[in-house]
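FAQ: What does the model actually see?

It sees only this:
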Amino acid sequence: MHEPKGTILPISGPRRFIIDLVHFARQVPSVPVSRLVDVSDLIEARAEHPMRPSWALLFMKAYAMVGAEHAPLRRALLEFPWSRLYEHPWMNCALAIERSFQGDHGVFIGLFRAPDQQTITQLQLALDFYKDQPLEKVGVYRRALKFSRVPRPIRRLFWWSTLNVSGYKRAKRFGTFGLTSYGALGAESLHPISPLTTTLTFGPISPERRVVVKLIYDHRVLDGVYVARRLRDVEAHLNGPILDELRRDSATPPAPSSSSREASPEPPAATVRLDVPGDPISPGLEAAVERSVDVEVPGKAI
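And it is asked to produce this:
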């Protein structure tokens, strides 16, 4: 009697993205630093807010505010044609978002431009856009899925060139920091990896209203003591400006109607233009990628 054999499955676009991301993340000597943060006041203020904003957005904005004040958090190591540090003028966040894709779950990246300069309401509208809109209507998702069809050598070369040649394009396309969390599921990520300089993550909120917040950093760019101080600043901003904004919004609800949400197909906080005029890095490579991306694959929907 023959034993049943396993099934060969194709690799989906989102899975190819994660495979590429992990390939480059493994090259980063990352180290986690954690801090136990008191969010007692935030819990009540968030519950009274008309939009009940995502915890991820509160941490995102708090960290972006810290990054706006501390330039080293906006730096990245570039290694071609020589090793150097690039410092971006503002913070861009790459938020990991789970979406359904062709009957399976996949991780997509939502880009948030300068979260410290956006209101909490604007950030929540952007997150709703990334979570609820059809994949084909979200530009960054659509490009990522099309790009996943490009042959692996070209994909890897494009990733490498974006991460190592142009700091400006790196920050525009991949963000200056990442954010991921399983806290809502009662789980905590021990050491998420990323090709970015820093990645913020947090676990579930304890009955004592405290949460473990971690900042995973590239040790080639930052040092642990510095990162520990910045986590202290994140807590101060959460219980300072972020708490104040939540309370102001509760006193004067800013939430737009559903009709006004539909009128803005792509909220400003979610708009990060990927094509940068006047920064012609690797034009031949980019042209090759564009040609590959524009090819439609019969029988495969993005």
